[in-house]
Specification:
- By secondary structure, the chain is mostly helical.
- It has three helices and no strands.
- Helix 1 packs across helix 2, helix 1 packs antiparallel against helix 3 and helix 2 packs across helix 3.
- The longest helix has 26 residues.
Length: 86
């Protein structure tokens, strides 16, 4: 295994882990009144919100529903699949 494939594979794995963190953050946003959810969200928000805010800045919510996380996850999945193909 050469250095380029190791870096590519590591980056693809990182993106998969980050997608899981995003997914957990999105699911926990539905349980904002639960104390246990607030503790986990206070940990995940500084990690995931900067990336999500990029999409929130140009994608308006539709009827009070924020669809920017869907696009954010699709983009990460697309990039991870591109890296996995190398």
């Amino acid at each position: 295994m050469n250095a380029a494939s190791l870096i590519t594979e590591s980056l693809a794995n990182f993106l998969q882990i980050y997608m899981i963190l995003l997914f957990v953050r999105i699911l926990l946003s539905w349980f904002q009144t639960a104390e246990w959810a607030n503790q986990i969200m206070s940990f995940l928000s500084p990690i995931t919100d900067p990336y999500l805010n990029i999409f929130r800045s140009f994608i308006p919510s539709l009827g009070g529903i924020d669809i920017s996380p869907i696009l954010a996850i699709f983009l990460l999945q697309f990039v991870a699949n591109l890296l996995a193909g190398f």
